[in-house]
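[Meeting: bench + compute handoff]

Bench side (C.D.) handed over the final construct sequence. Compute side (W.E.) agreed to return the predicted structure before the next meeting so the bench team could plan truncations. Sequence as handed over:
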Amino acid sequence: MSFSSSDLEAVKCLLCHADDAEPRFTKDGLQVVRCRRCHLLYVNPRLTAKALSRLYNNDEISPHSYYRETRLADQKTFSKRLDLLQQLLGNKKKIRILDIGCNIGTLLFEAEKRGWECHGIDINAQVKSFFKNSKVELRIGDVIKSSYLKNSFDLIIMNDLIEHIPNPQQLLLKVNALLKSDGLVFMVTPDGGSFMARILGKRWFHLKPREHLYYFSKTHLRRLFRDTGFMVTSFQHLGRYRSLDTLATKSASLFGPLSHFVHKVFRFLHLDRLVVPFNLYDEYAIIARKS
């Protein structure tokens, strides 16, 4: 896969601003490098914001068709996560939530069942059809440029989002401004320092350099939150639910033809839609408050 020069931009390290990185992996026509100073893994050169927006809106990356297929498993995943967050938020009569990068809104519709006031924003205009006749307020666009009121949300959620964002610091500064003083941030992102990331290398499931621009370790995430005015209260490898169909598909990069054979067996036995808990301990769930 190749890209034109106008689709690409060279960048320095996000965290230490050094222009001193060593190549680590090449995948999908793009290069993942490691900063020699702070060891952050990132894509360089990477797709520009304009090129990324085009790919998202053409459903070429993070397509809504994928989230339709995984909706049942995602409902179970998000329900458990919302249980945890509801405990932490305490006995608030009205919880106002913003889901950034909400896609088809699976999490928001689970939160709506709890009587929460739900807002979502996504860059992909094609997801609008999933919100018709719902009480969820959807906006299309970039949250950094959005006009949400300051100090207006009890909970801001970013599931599998920050690794997609060209400037995560700007994103977290915006989130800080939108969050109430006693509010919570809940974020999930691949763990670039995990055992699975190290052992699998370029075959790691989360290594998607067209859309995943950064691969943060725990140290990097602590620094990122500290520098944007947050105190991290929890790091967890929560895992999620997956269908056997999804697991067989995602394992293809590791097991090749064997995965395709297993996939066919699952479908023959009508087990492909069976949803099971799954955790490779290679994704961080972070809970943070304003510092």
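W.E. noted at the follow-up: Residues 71-89 form the longest helix (19 residues). C.D. will use this when planning the next construct.
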